Amino acid sequence: MGCLSWKLQVLCLLSFLFHSTSSSLSSSLSSISPCSALLHFNHSLSLHRDASPPLDTPDYPTEYRSNIHMCDNSYPKTASWKEDKDCCTWDGVICHKTTRHVIGLDLSCSWLNGSINSNSTLFFLPHLKRLNLAGNFFNYSIISSEFGKFKSLTHLNLSHSMFSAKIPHEISHLSSLVSLDLSYNDWLLIATPVWKRVIHNLTQLRELFLDQSNMSSIRPNSLMNLSSSLTTLSLRDCNLQGKLQNDILSFPSIQTLDLGYNINLEGSLSKCNWSSNSLKFLSLSDTNFSGKLPDSIGNLKSLKSLALGNCNFTGSIPTSLGNLTQITYLYLHRNNFIGSIPTSLGNLTKLTSLTLSYNSFSGLLPLSLFNLPNLSSLYLRYNQLVGPLPNHVSGLLNLNELFLGSNFLNGTLPFWLFSLPSLVNLDISRNQFIGEIGEFKSNSLERLHLGNNKLQGSIPRSISRFVNLTSLTLSSNNLSIVLELEMFSKLKNLQYLDFSYNLVSINNNVTYTLPNLYHLNLSSCNISEFPIFLRTTTNLQLLDLSKNRIYGQFPRWLVDVGRDSLYFLDLHDNLLQGPFPTLSFLNMQYLFVSNNKFTGEIPSLICNTSALDVLDLSYNNLSGMIPKCLVHSNVLSVLDLRMNSLYGTIPATFSKRNNFRNINLNGNQLEGPLPRSLENCRYLEVLDLGSNKINGTFPYWLEGLLYLQVLVLRSNKFQGCIGNPKIKSPFPNLRILDISNNEFNGPLPRKYFKYLKAMTNVDEGKVALKYMGDRYYYDSLNVMIKGFYIKLVRIQTVFTTIDFSNNSFSGEMPKIIGRLKSLKGLNFSHNNLTGYIPSTLGNLHNLEWLDLSFNKFTGEIPRQLADLPWLEVLKLSHNHLTGLIPSGKQFNTFDNDSYIENLGLCGFPLSRMCNNHEAKNPPLLTSQQEDKLEPENGFGWQAVSMGYGCGVLFGMLMGYLMFKIGKPKWIVRMVNWLALLLLKYLVQGYCL
Question: Which residues form the signal peptide (predicted)?
Fold first, then answer.
């Protein structure tokens, strides 16, 4: 008991001492002078230049955000603070003239680095009215609740300073705030209770900036409860979600409203009925706003900037936009606008930037746009504009950027286009311009894109004066280009050069240097040698010399070009020969050398290029075995080695973490079984192993590859029956299945047909035309189409076909094939199929060719086939078909070859006419009725009939024996033995 009392006394003493110490410390801190508090605050932080980097400029005019160019000229303001000087003279410190209280502190962009904790002496400046700590690095620290104690604060700016977590509710205590900027921190969370307090308490707010905060829980319509005196509201990229009422756009005092980059924010302007207000800046870009623009938008006479890009606005632009005579920035990029561009936009004489690209504007270019005196940027790319450029213009003296690419503009290039004194960027590519390129008068061009037109002649000599030129694209024209010293030696800043699909001559007798060149495309230029100037190019990243006449061996010096930088090399379709080179490009990702004459083995050192993504060595004369290291790769996505002379087996060690999307080994001499490790290729979309000597049974273990769309096993030595699937949904995305020219037998795999979901879906008219592959490598394939082997240079994602021809399949054709409604081609020719042709094939409304020739089909041709609207090729020859050939629609286009060697057929186009009995068509069965006739176990009517007939005879015999002999036990044993023998006979040739 005494011990416990002693411990309590000690605890009480410690508590007293701690309380006394805390009180003393608090008292001493509260008595710290403002100058000492500032010094303590400064000493708690360090200075680093990287803490205040220049900020990226957003895509709207500079006059509408004072901090857009913040930190461009940052410096450490506190570095000049001296203890022996009055703090009121320190840089960034403002004091009251009479009381000498510190009332303002501006340490924006001051290289401050560290954390501001709750015990910081910053909070011992109770008279602060303005506090600006923007543009520093506060190490993801939490905004302290102590900020709520600055009761006199009218302006608080903590933007771009890497605060994190959530905004404390104490911020709502700053009832005198006029301006609050917490934008561009680490996604500060604004909880609903805090937001409600801010709305309720901060009634003096005129400016509120919360850009790139997390407001996902805030209802958009709560914005209506903000102060009606608000002049600036910026909630850019705040994850606002839901529908916003129009009323927020009509706040009486609002001048700047930025709700851009809230992609799930919905709304419409179509019902806005503006009369006039003070709105100067409006941004709804990258939101889900939709509908038409109202005519009343022309009443916003004070508007200087309107940004509505990347939304879903529709309809035509109202001509009333021409009333916005104060506007300088108009951004309507990537919407669904249609119709002509209003000529009234020519009234916007203060306009400096006009962006209407990525819409569906049509008609002629308004001449009025080319007479705007202050226009510096004009973007009209990716529309449907037609006609020539105007012959004469009176404005555009300040034009820096002109982008008219990807339209249908035509005619010759007018003289004024080459005389714009301030032009820096010119893009008129992907149009239909003709004639020659004129001589430029100015030397200011930095980017010149004239590709994909019908221009002819030579390059203007004036290009050699463009010392600041970084990008030059003249591709896909009819130009004659000479790569010579005089023309290009002065273009030291050139980085991007594309002369592809022109006639290019190279003078390799004189060399010159393009030290900054990183992209060179001379594809399809009819050149016969490597450009010698490449020897001195050290920063090359992309080199495309494909589709030329370059002959000889791979030059050794080319290996040293871009050794550390080259990631893309395309030499396909040339005349290169000799051993395949040992390449040592450290960062190579895409390597294309197909359609050359390389010989020898593939060097295993190619695997040292650890970043290799696409390797295309197809259509060469390479021999040897496939290097095992290639299938060990975890990066390689495309391995195209088709049409070589590779032999041996496919390496059996595909990594479990591999990234293969396309493996094409077609047309080699590979043999042996398929490696089971191919099932590790979880992302595989294309597997083409056709025309080899691969053996074994059907690789059912590939059925679990969820992304597999193309499987080609054609012309190998596969054999045996194709059994039932081993999983519930095999090959869910398979669209092209070719196992022709093998030795498969047994019945057709009905259960597999049942689960080919990608062939069941018909969405061709609902999706945009797409091709398999990506921007650098599009999948290609040799496939039998309408009786001919055709190379699909690109594979449409809606293309579907099944080819089981030239095997030994037997039995009936499963009627369930009629469910594969997206099929374009079906080939079961040269097998031993029997029974009727199922009428369910009439459901295949996308079918373009059907080949069932060289089988043993019987019965009549289903009349439903005559209703297939796209059927172009039909081959039913060499069967046992009978009766009248259906007529009408596509069947009227087929000739005798479709039906020959079917002695029982009659009617057009055959010369044999039908008698009265043959001319009668049987009643049509519905697909449901036919499904009922479909045997679930794979036995057709023949097997059932055989079993029934044998059963009758066998029963009569057994009855007689039992009656005569009377030995039921012996009979039972004999019946069991005979039954097993009979069953074995009946199922012979069937796969169970």
Answer: 1-23
| Phi, psi (degrees; rounded to nearest 5) at 345 | -65, -15
Instruction: Tell whether 40 is covered by a domain.
Output: no
909: preceding bond cis by omega (within 30 degrees): yes
Rounded Cα–Cα distance for residues 293 and 285 (Å) = 14
The answer to whether 280 and 257 have CB atoms below 8 angstroms apart is no
- Parent domain of 957: 941-987
Q: Which residue has the higher pLDDT, 50 or 484?
A: 50
Q: How many CB atoms lie within 10 A of CB 644?
A: 24
Instruction: Give me the helices (H) in 601-754, please.
Output: 628-632, 750-754
Residue 309 falls within a domain, yes or no?
Answer: no
3-class DSSP assignment, residue 730: coil
What single string gives the DSSP state of each residue in 37-76?
HHHHHHHTSEE-GGGSPPPPPPSS-GGG-TTTTTTTT---
- Domain annotation covers residue 486: no
Q: In this predicted model, which residue has the larger pLDDT, 707 or 7?
A: 707
Whether residue 649 lies inside any domain: the answer is: no
Which residues have C-beta within 8 Å of that of residue 911, sequence separation ≥ 6? none
783 neighbors 715 (Cβ within 8 angstroms)? no
CATH number at residue 348: 3.80.10.10
CB 133, CB 114: distance < 8 Å: no
- Decide if 720 contacts 697 (C-beta within 8 A): yes
Sequence-distant (≥ 6) Cβ neighbours of residue 79 within 8 angstroms? 47
CA atoms within 13 A on the CB side of 246: 12
* Residue finishing a domain among 469, 487, 519: 469
- Pick the last residue of a domain from 440, 469, 498: 469
Q: What end-to-end distance do the CA atoms of the chain give, in Å?
A: 89
**Average pLDDT estimate for 136-155:** 96
H-helix or E-strand containing 987?
helix 968-987
Side chain identity at 866, as an amino acid letter?
A
User: Could you give the C-alpha distances from 233 to 154, 189, 205, 206, 328, in angstroms and in order?
Assistant: 16, 18, 10, 8, 20
pLDDT digits (tens, 9 = 90+) for 154-163: 999 999 999 9
**Long-range contact list for 64-71, CB < 8 A, 24+ apart?**
64/256, 64/280, 64/281, 64/304, 64/305, 65/234, 67/108, 67/134, 67/135, 67/157, 67/159, 67/160, 67/181, 70/108, 70/109, 70/134, 70/135, 70/160, 71/108, 71/109, 71/135, 71/160
The amino acid occupying position 88 is C
Token pair of 955 as six digits: 């029963």
Q: What is the pLDDT of residues 226-275, one digit of tens each?
A: 988 999 999 999 999 999 987 777 788 899 999 999 999 999 998 888 87
Choice between 849 and 889, residue whose per-residue pLDDT is larger: 849
Between 968-987 and 941-965, two packed helices, what is the crossing angle to 10 degrees? 160
How many domains, in total, are found in the chain? 2
Q: What is the DSSP letter of 349?
A: T
- Residue 433 — pLDDT band, cuts 50, 70, 90? very high
